[in-house]
Automatic annotation (TrEMBL):
GO terms for biological process: hydrogen peroxide catabolic process; response to oxidative stress. This is Catalase. It catalyses: 2 H2O2 = O2 + 2 H2O. InterPro entries: Catalase, Catalase_AS, Catalase_clade2, Catalase_clade2_helical, Catalase_core, Catalase_haem_BS, Catalase_immune_responsive, Catalase_large_C. GO terms for molecular function: catalase activity; heme binding; metal ion binding. Gene3D superfamilies: 1.20.1370.20, 3.40.50.880, Catalase core domain (2.40.180.10).
């Protein structure tokens, strides 16, 4: 019997093969990145290709005897296993990634010669990795943290990496402070506690001594730090970059990613609960959306600033703690990115992918942002350690689709077998090839920038306004967002043991907003100081004059910016939202099926949750398959809850503590709830809640996202109201 007959193809292998065949966009890279071994049809072998006859027993001296050193099968297998782990990323260790493509809407040739931004017919393959920053590889997805948003464009002119975050600014202005910052936010070194959390003394100690971090702190304490999904975060290149056109003209640019599903978050209590119920919540969400064909999409946005406007604004374009308010320079949406394929192997792709802000193509260039400049060194350096040597560009996921020809040779794990005698340039032995490319032939030329300066360790006075944009962010938030931000600060600083650190932070907050500082101080049981106090001598150069290092306040032209508030995001779709349908024996089958199909028609996904797995019996005796039981499901993993009609089913849910808890949590987390036949279930789920115990009118409840007794109105109208409510995401007016 041949191998094929002995081992049937697994469905997994079939699916993958089909995907790779069908995937025309990724075809270009798949020929490079896939090893052509088809697992299901081959014999098991050693790494030397020797076929293995017994993979179950080691070689022994007698059946009960000691294992022999001679056993090359055992030794090879164990040795490889012993070396399976590589160092995790020092930051952004935990992530999830996906393949897809990017396509520009219209040629941007006016600004850039980068081909992938000038040819609207070109679909450029991308690989995108999302991440948290502080936690280890095994930490929870739902930590309060910045999210990494790193995009590798496999362009025909070479790889371009846009290595950004979901927040548009950063904590510090100069790369030299980065190791200190990361040491402070990581778990404390003596006991490695807390994991994936900034709520501890060392982080806030550092922050309270870094007034430039205050803008980023506003973002980090906002709900942006606890996203509903990677698919619902914005992305930002953070630094100002340059675009260069064919004529060598340059403009400044800030990059944005705008998610087509809107920007949405969970609430803090939910985040904490999800961390226990499903620490892979964001990974799973991304994976499942792509598996189900609900491909996440982002538009690429650019803010373009002409060269002559470099000094026009009340902030410095080179300062990475500043945004350009969209009111000053609108974001032009220039193209779309679609993620349509999950990685086949987490380690080979998501773990081994190596991003580097210095991977640019002709038409994109750097500015002198001192944080960016430091990053240009760091990323290659870190990959050398993490991926074991200088040939990490040969790892399939990192290979460009553009051909690579140079005289770099050898080193650990070299894959390329370079033929020929001469490995230098210039040469005549191999005819002078590969040769340098003229700019017209796509050769990269750095932008010629005139710099006439002193060599100096220091920073520009234009980098000293630390609070104006922190205040701009705070003032742009809705009341609910301000409350969440205040609560987050109170929580985080409440976890800080040293009173002097909390006090210093309250002092800094007074510079952002008095009410914010007062409310946080109140929660911490502290007085509000008149002005911040911190030991200046620690945060300025040893011979610096403290007077020269005082923060300044520059008058702002923009007081409030709509784009900064998530309250203004898109709320017109329920695509990919997860809806729990709670049911038990005796449920009205028609109300389930009608609601299910109405929701699914809008792109939502539903799950029937019952007291136990298997089947429930409808009022008319029909068997309905249960997707999850109350034991494994949890309200925090869903966006909304529906309780279909059926007196017996409702009565049994009313007796079920877990069902009541499910509804209670959905209510507390401001989610849409619909019930065909309330029968007191809502009240029972949250005894003592004033709003639910008052007999509110249906319309009042509907205004708070609770659709009740709608069955009387007919299932369609119920579904319509419910769909509208789910699209609202949350009802903060409860
Ligand atoms: Fe990074 N950063 N970073 N960073 N960063 C890394 O590179 C670094 C900064 C960002 O999914 C490391 O491969 C320095 C800003 C993302 O693989 C390391 C400084 C922004 C990722 C590194 C910064 C980022 C990283 C760790 C200050 C937003 C994950 C592992 C000068 C614009 C990429 C690695 C992925 C990863 C250094 C600041 C984004 C050590 C020195 C600002 C999304 O090289």
């Amino acid at each position: 019997m041949g191998v094929k007959e002995r081992v049937g193809k697994t469905s997994d292998t079939r699916v993958n093969e089909e995907k790779i065949e069908k995937d025309t966009i990724n075809e270009k890279i798949s020929s490079l990145t896939y090893h052509t071994e088809s697992a299901a049809e081959e014999f098991l072998t050693t790494n030397q290709g020797t076929r293995i006859n017994d993979n179950q027993n080691s070689l022994k001296a007698g059946e009960r005897g000691p294992t022999l050193l001679e056993d090359f099968l055992l030794r090879e297998k164990i040795t490889h296993f012993d070396h399976e782990r590589i160092p995790e990323r020092v930051v952004h260790a935990r992530g999830a990634a996906a393949h897809g493509y990017f396509q520009v809407y219209e040629s941007m040739a006016k600004y850039t010669k980068a081909k992938f931004l000038t040819d609207p017919s070109e679909k450029t393959p991308v690989f995108v990795r999302f991440s948290t920053v502080a936690g280890s590889r095994g930490s929870s997805d739902l930590a309060r943290d910045v999210r990494g948003f790193a995009v590798k464009f496999y362009t025909k002119e070479g790889n371009y990496d846009l290595v950004g975050n979901n927040m548009p600014v950063f904590f510090i202005q100069d790369a030299i402070k980065f190791p200190d910052f990361v040491h402070a936010v990581k778990p404390e070194p003596h006991n490695e506690i807390p994991q994936a959390s900034s709520a501890h003394d060392t982080f806030w100690d550092f922050i309270s001594l870094a007034p430039e971090s205050m803008h980023m702190i506003m973002w980090l304490m906002s709900d942006r730090a606890i996203p509903r999904s990677f698919r619902m975060i914005e992305g930002f290149g953070v630094h100002t970059f340059r675009l260069i056109n064919e004529d060598g003209e340059s403009v400044f640019v800030k990059f944005h990613w705008k998610p087509l599903l809107g920007v949405h978050s969970v609430v803090w209590e939910e985040a904490q609960m999800i961390s226990g119920k499903d620490p892979d919540f964001h990974r799973r969400d991304l994976w499942e959306a792509i598996e189900k064909g609900a491909f996440p999409e982002w538009e690429l946005g650019v803010q373009i600033v002409p060269e002559e406007d470099e000094h026009k604004y009340e902030f410095d374009l080179l300062d990475p703690t500043k945004i350009i308010p969209e009111e000053l320079v609108p974001v032009q949406r220039i193209g779309k990115m679609t993620l349509n394929r999950n990685p086949d192997n987490f380690f080979a792709e998501t773990e081994q992918v190596a991003f580097h802000p210095g991977n640019v193509v002709p038409g994109i260039d750097f500015t002198n942002d001192p944080l960016l400049q430091g990053r240009l060194f760091s990323y290659i350096d870190t990959q050398l350690l993490r991926l074991g040597g200088p040939n990490f560009h040969e790892i399939p996921i990192n290979r460009p689709i553009a051909p690579v020809h140079n005289n770099q040779r050898d080193g650990h794990m070299r894959q390329t077998i370079n033929r020929g005698k001469a490995s230098y340039q210039p040469d005549t032995i191999k005819g002078g090839y590969p040769i340098q490319a003229k700019a017209a032939e796509g050769g990269f030329t750095s932008y010629t920038e005139r710099i006439e300066v002193n060599k100096i360790r220091g920073k520009s006075r234009s980098f000293f306004d630390h609070f104006s944009q922190a205040a701009l962010f705070y003032n742009s938030q809705s009341d609910v967002e301000k409350k969440h931000l205040t609560d987050a600060l109170s929580f985080e600083l409440g976890k800080v043991e040293r009173v002097e650190i909390r006090q210093r932070m309250v002092g800094l907050l007074t510079q952002v907003d008095e009410t914010l500082a007062t409310n946080v101080a109140d929660a911490l049981g502290l007085p509000v100081p008149r002005q911040p106090e911190y030991p200046m001598n620690h945060i300025i150069p040893a011979d610096g004059d403290p007077k020269e290092y005082q923060p300044v306040k520059v008058k702002q032209s923009i007081k409030k910016s709509e784009a900064l508030s998530m309250a203004n995001t898109i709320k017109n779709t329920i695509k990919t939202r997860q809806i729990a349908i709670l049911a038990a024996d005796g449920v009205d089958e028609a109300s389930i099926s009608q609601m299910k199909s109405a929701l699914e028609a809008e792109g939502a996904q539903t799950a029937i949750i019952a007291p136990k797995l298997g089947y429930i019996k409808s009022a008319t005796g029909k068997e309905i398959k249960v997707d999850q039981s109350f034991l494994t499901a949890s309200s925090v993993l869903f966006d909304a809850v529906y309780v279909p009609g059926g007196a017996k089913s409702s009565a049994s849910l009313k007796e079920n503590a877990k069902a009541l808890q499910f509804i209670y949590e959905a209510y507390r987390h401001y989610k849409a709830i619909a019930m065909d036949d309330d029968s007191g279930l809502l009240k029972a789920s949250y005894p003592g809640n004033k709003m639910l115990s008052d007999t509110l009118k249906e319309t009042d409840l509907a205004a708070k996202g609770i659709i009740v007794n709608a069955h009387a109105k007919g299932a369609t109208s119920n579904a319509k109201d419910f769909i509208k409510a789910i699209a609202q995401h949350r009802f903060w007016n409860r």
